[in-house]
Write a structure and sequence with these properties.
Layout (H helix, E strand, L loop, with lengths): L3 H28 L7 H20 L1 H11 L5 H13 L3 H13 L4 H10 L8 H6 L4 H14 L5 H6 L5 H14 L5 H6 L6 H13 L5 H10 L6 H11 L2 H12 L5 H11 L5 H7 L6 H12 L9 E2 L15 H11 L4 E2 L1 H11 L17 H10 L2 H14 L12 H11 L1
Antiparallel strand pairs: 1-2
Helix pairs in contact: 1-2, 1-3, 1-4, 2-3, 2-23, 3-4, 4-5, 4-6, 8-10, 10-12, 12-13, 13-14, 14-16, 15-16, 16-18, 17-18, 17-20, 21-22
Length: 424
C-alpha cells in the first residue's frame, strides 16, 4: 500500500494532468485557426495533450474524482477533458450528465464537441448511434456533430434533421449536409435558402455551393458577400473561390470602393487568387491596421511565405488597432485576434520580391499558394502548409469534388496525417 506522501504526490501529478489538459485544449482551439502553425506543430501540441489525457486514464479512480471536481467551475477545457475520459472509458451515465451540463452552458459546449472529435471512432461506436436516435433534439445535434468531425455519413438521421423545426438542430444538419458530400441533399439545402433565420440561409447557401450548385446558391452567397455583417467574410471567401475571375473582379471592385470594407476585400483577394491585385496588396501593407492581413493575402496568392523568405519585419512600436483610431473599439479586439499569428510584412522587401518574380504569375489566372488549384497541389498544402492555408485547401478540394466529404483540419494531427497519406 502506498504511504500518505506517495498518495499526495500522485494526486498532485493527477491534478496537474487535469489542469493542463484543459489549458492545452483551449490553446489548441486557437492553434487550429492560426496563420503560423503547420501540421507538424499541431502534432507536437496534440502529443502533449494526449500524454496528459493518458496520464489521467492511468490515475484511475483518483483521476476521475479530480476531473469531476474540475467541473465545479466548468469551461470548455474542463468539459473537454471530462468528456474524453467518459468516452474512452465508456462511462455512459457520466456522459449523459456532461450532455446536460453542456446544454445548460452554451459558452462551454465547444469543449464537448471537440471531445467527440478528439476520441477515436472506436470510442464512439454505439454512442453516436444512440445520440442520433435520441428524442432530444440537442442529443441528436451532438450525434450529427460527431459524425461530421469523423467524416461519417449520418444517413437517414441527417435527412430527417433537415426537415425538423428545432433551429439549432437544423443549423447543424445544414452544415453537415455540405460537409458530408451528400449531393442527394442539395434540394433540401436549396429549400433552406428561404429560411427566416439568417444563419440558416447562409449555411444553406454555403452547403449548396459545396454540393455543386453554381446557380441560385451562388447568387445568394454573393448577396451576403456584399452586405456587411456576421456572414460577409465567410461568404466572400467561398464565393470568390468558386466564381469565374471576371465575376470575382466585379465583386472585389464593389467592395474596394468602400474604405470600411478593406479587410473584407483583402479576404476576397486571397480567395480569388488573381495576381492583378498584388499591387493593391502592396499598398495596403503600408497601413498598420491591415498590413498583416495584406501580407497573408499576398502569401495565399503567390505562395511566398513572408517568414521563410525573410520578407517580414518587426511590428511597429504600437501595433494595437485601437490605438490607431482607424477602427471602432468593439471591432479592435476581433481584428487583433484575426491578425495575431500573422507576420508583419516589410513593404520594400515584398515589393522587391514581386518585381523579381511577378512575371511568372499570369494575370487573370487563379492562383493558390503560388500554383493553379489542383487536387495534388491542395493535398500538398494540407501536408505542409500553415493552418489557414490548409483550411482553404480543404475547401478547394470540396469544390473540386462536390460528392466528397470535407477534410477536417482541426482533427487530431495523427488522424489528419493518415487521411492525407491515404488520399495521395
Amino acid at each position: 500500500m502506498l504511504d500518505p506522501v506517495s498518495n499526495a504526490t500522485l494526486e498532485y501529478v493527477a491534478q496537474q494532468y487535469v489542469e493542463d489538459s484543459a489549458l492545452l485544449r483551449n490553446a489548441r482551439s486557437g492553434l487550429v485557426r492560426s496563420g503560423d502553425i503547420r501540421l507538424r506543430d499541431l502534432k507536437r501540441h496534440d502529443e502533449r495533450l494526449s500524454a496528459h489525457l493518458d496520464g489521467l486514464a492511468l490515475a484511475g479512480e483518483m483521476g476521475r474524482r479530480l476531473v469531476s471536481r474540475a467541473l465545479e467551475n466548468p469551461g470548455k477545457g474542463e468539459l473537454f477533458t471530462a468528456a474524453v475520459c467518459a468516452l474512452r472509458e465508456r462511462r455512459l451515465d457520466e456522459l449523459t450528465k456532461l450532455l446536460a451540463l453542456a446544454e445548460a452552458l452554451p459558452e462551454a459546449r465547444a469543449g464537448l464537441y471537440s471531445a467527440f472529435g478528439w476520441v477515436s471512432a472506436q470510442c464512439l461506436r454505439g454512442v453516436a448511434a444512440a445520440l442520433l436516435d435520441a428524442k432530444a433534439s440537442y442529443h441528436r445535434a451532438i450525434g450529427l456533430v460527431a459524425c461530421g468531425m469523423h467524416g461519417v455519413d449520418a444517413g437517414l438521421a441527417l435527412t430527417t434533421a433537415l426537415s425538423e423545426t428545432d433551429a439549432a438542430l437544423v443549423a447543424v444538419a445544414i452544415r453537415l449536409a455540405g460537409q458530408s458530400g451528400r449531393t442527394d441533399l442539395l434540394p433540401q439545402c436549396l429549400d433552406r435558402l428561404r429560411a427566416e433565420v439568417p444563419g440558416h440561409r447562409f449555411l444553406a447557401a454555403r452547403s449548396a455551393v459545396l454540393l455543386g450548385d453554381h446557380g441560385i446558391a451562388l447568387d445568394s452567397l454573393q448577396d451576403m458577400a456584399l452586405a456587411p455583417g456576421a456572414y460577409q467574410a465567410p461568404a466572400v471567401g467561398l464565393l470568390l473561390k468558386t466564381v469565374p475571375l471576371s465575376r470575382a473582379h466585379e465583386v472585389l471592385t464593389t467592395l474596394a470602393r468602400d474604405p470600411s470594407q478593406t479587410r473584407v476585400t483583402l479576404h476576397g483577394i486571397a480567395s480569388a487568387g488573381d495576381p492583378r491585385y498584388v499591387d493593391w496588396l502592396l499598398a495596403r501593407m503600408q497601413d498598420p491596421t491591415c498590413a498583416r492581413l495584406a501580407g497573408h493575402a499576398f502569401n495565399v496568392v503567390t505562395g511566398a511565405d513572408l517568414s521563410d523568405r525573410h520578407l517580414d519585419t518587426n511590428p511597429p512600436a504600437d501595433d494595437s488597432p485601437a490605438s490607431e483610431g482607424a477602427l471602432h473599439a468593439d471591432s479592435a479586439a476581433a481584428v487583433e485576434d484575426e491578425d495575431e499569428s500573422l507576420p508583419w510584412p516589410c513593404p520594400a522587401k515584398t515589393a522587391a520580391w514581386w518585381n523579381e518574380n511577378g512575371d511568372t504569375f499570369p494575370p487573370s489566372v487563379r492562383h493558390f499558394m503560388g500554383q493553379a488549384v489542383t487536387r495534388a497541389h491542395c493535398l500538398a498544402v494540407l501536408r505542409s502548409g500553415r493552418q489557414r492555408s490548409r483550411a482553404a485547401a480543404a475547401e478547394y478540394l470540396r469544390l473540386l469534388s462536390p460528392s466528397s466529404s470535407s477534410f477536417n483540419v482541426a482533427a487530431p494531427a495523427w488522424r489528419q496525417e493518415r487521411l492525407i497519406e491515404a488520399a495521395i
